[in-house]
RNA helicase (Calocera cornea HHB12733), 783 residues
Amino acid sequence: PLQRPPAVAASRLLLPIVAEEQQLLETVLLNTVSVVCGETGSGKTTQVPGMLYEAGFGSPGSDNPGMIAVTQPRRVAAMSTAQRVSYELALPPPLVAHAVRYDQTTAPETRIKFVTDGVLLRELASDFLLERYSVVIVDEAHERTLGTDVLVGVLSRVVKLRERRFVEGTGKPLRLIIMSATLRISDFTSNTVLFPTPPPLIHVPARQHPVTVHFSRRTAPDYVAEAVRKVERIHTRLPGGGVLVFLTGQREIELVCKRLERRWGRKEMERRRRASLAAGDDAPVAVSARLGDVEAEEVDLGERGDEIAADEDGDLGEDVNSDDEYNVEDEEGDEKPSETDAFDVPMHILPLYSLLPGDKQMRVFQDPPADARLIVVATNVAETSLTIPAIRYVVDSGRAKERKYDISSGIQSYQVSWESKASAAQRAGRAGRTGPGHCYRLYSSAVFENHFEPFAQPEILRMPIEGVVLQMKSMNIDAVVNFPFPTPPDRMALRKAESLLVHLGALEPPSPGNKDNALSGRITELGKAMALFPVAPRFAKMLVAGKQHGCLPYVIAIVAGLSVGDPFLREDVIGQKDDDGAREDEDMDDELANIKNEDLRAKEERKRRRKAFFDSQAAYAALGNGTSDIFRILAVVGAYEYEGGTASFCAKHFVRPKAMEEMRKLRAQITAIVRANFGDIVPPFAPRLDPPSEVQLKALRQLLTAGFVDHVAVRKDVAYPASATGAKYASCRGVAYRALGVDEDVFVHPSSVLFHGLPPEYLLFLEVVRTSKPYIKTLTVVN
Ligand code: ADP
Ligand code: MG
């Protein structure tokens, strides 16, 4: 029997899922696979694991003694939901625990285990029947991440095998529960390759309050400025209630927060009040809208707010209001007294994105100060996996940043594009959790109708898949083409993945003449060893191959560094990240920088920070004499640990503390895997890492060359002497390179240690990323 904290016991009864408890348990007990579908916030994630636990799942000696697993696509979600459920059920860790790539709190006593889908996939490689579990809940299946899709495919088979064992009397069954927010579940329910008989669907009726959707009359290209404007208007003219703003990424979010803070932050409001008191003005009064008992509908947001524009059609199933084209003049300068000058409710502004440290992310769940309005500026993290309380207004930019990957060239890009209609509906829904709400869309209904896809593309169609292919092979799924994917990947993507794995030695090469075999290569011993590591196959190969010269601790640090990703805060210091002119950050905040002096001081400060940034970059580039971005990462890991891994080190040297911490955890974890599987070829993990010797550096360079032979770029005038102009080079800026498999010129990314030096003839690169043009990143000179 569970002892929920009293506050939880009361409030959970209000969650829609609780009314479905009986039906849910019956369905789950009678079926090996069930699908639960319900609006975000209906209580799926926090309540279903507890219901199963109370029904005996996870209790030793019961019919279902195995653990309850709950998978999440994101690490943050796995950790925060574990924490929440542990608190709600009063089952402290390790009874309710989490396991993610960098961290785990599990123990033999664990009953409910929150994991990322990647972690469970890796467990499947060593225990294909998942014998330690009685039920697996695949949560947030609508997100259609690569891991989730593969997991559902594998589990559909595992469930069958366990069922057979059960019928034969040699084991207990395993149940699979797929949980999803939006209704795109047909890929799971009507896919007969996946589930020959469609699994039963438990639909949780939404107890959602009505949300009035307002389209913009026109679609402003500068949605960041538009978002700021909209929030200000909501804040000054509409009744109380939190505002949730959806943007695409960290930089935009920080910018919007900064702009709002400068004008509406508590500090600024107080400064203004003091200034106006000192000037002898009357004490400012708050506008009635917020204090009075007014409904948003009653407030005329704009001068022409009640006028419905011609291009607005009301048949979207939702109440469509024309958006207001307000006067924006009152935004400029402080000289004109306006409504907003007299308004004295501060904003409580919180950013929310995945790179934000965990404790800062959790701030959105805390009550905002009573006298302030909560403003959360978020990426689509806030779309389905985190439910922020007390949001009444949503401002939706309509955009999302997506990682795209071109299968034939391998070029990646992060593109800001229109979100899907499903996402737009999700975002709007966030406003109706606690009462009727409003969603302001920063785009027109015509754009919505004509340019928004119904659903986002599953990740498997836009990501490299060699990692999951290797994992499947390590589970002895040889014929990946026949695998029951919810959405099958492109054939060419499969073939590419297999040929890379053959090339790395992880798969047996196809026998000549046997065409089919090209897609069913068997895993080699080397491949099996590679699959043990929670990193990309190319990196795993470096680990398995990197045993000579006492190099392994360095190889581990490099692999950990590359897997976690660039720790440098270049973007924050230099401004525009991908501009190879490395031009001055065109301060988009100028419109708000009202005091000239402050502006100048800020410029000076930026200059100083840029210089400090470049100085510290130069110091790290010294390892390997400025010939490798990878050695720069190694150098920063070494320096960070040498100084005891402190936050002040990170601040001083412009690196992300979270990234550095993750690197250390991943180093520890890889070291443990190496020792467990290959014996004492590395010493037990110690954070400290002395600089490598010349001999070791040389060995490391050879290892990198071996790992990246297919990722070599050649300077264009060397590759095509005819194209040489004979011009002298001053730096890498604008110098074209050619890379295998890429049909266009590529360029050295300005973040590289090589960028300001003379362009080398041959370079190894980790990836090609397209921004304004295709850039090669994370480079090492080959000589
Ligand atoms: P679903 O999975 O169906 O989207 P959840 O179970 O995540 O729904 O959320 C149910 C309720 O629990 C929501 O009202 C949400 O705000 C609340 N909740 C979830 N996580 C936390 C947390 N860490 N702290 C406080 N409240 C939370
Ligand atoms: Mg959920």
Q: What stands out?
A: The chain has a mean pLDDT of 84. Residues 44-45, 139, 385 surround magnesium ion (ligand 2) (CB under 6 Å). The first helix runs from residue 6 to 12. Residues 274 and 689 are 53 Å apart (CA to CA).
